[in-house]
Here is the input.
Amino acid sequence: MKTSKAILIATATVAVGILNAGRLQRGRTELAEKHHQETIELSREQHQQRLRLDTAALHQRLLAAIATDPEHCEIWNKGDITPEELANMVRVNRQISLNHLTFELGLTSPEKLLVQARSLMERPIVRDFWGKTRDFRSQESDGEATQTFIEILDREYAAAATEKPVVNTVA
Here is the structure.
């Protein structure tokens, strides 16, 4: 009886050990699979970010060409403004596009964007540009970050449009 009890206890101990080893292996496999999926997702996000950066770089180069090359300027001018005005509007677009990209990528906080938007809207040409293009930007926008960007610029545009010019009273 003693030998059979010992064999039974040993068998049970081995069985429990095998079950635990199986559970540990399944846990490791699940953890490895989760890590693999997270790595794939991170790779996708980095790839999308790289595509956004590359596209933004192409956009900036196109805007630079439009602003400086009369032939490009002529192609993109709808005829309602002078080439000089178009070049200046394109320069403003370059700055706003850069602000949008840094905000979308999370490099600029909403608070910092607010400061930047306020500074931009101090300039009449920026207000003129935003007034002419904000509806188009709203229509083409996608994503929460872009909507927030537009809302912040819209608020500062409205605030700047209602402000009275500061009169310097120092003689």
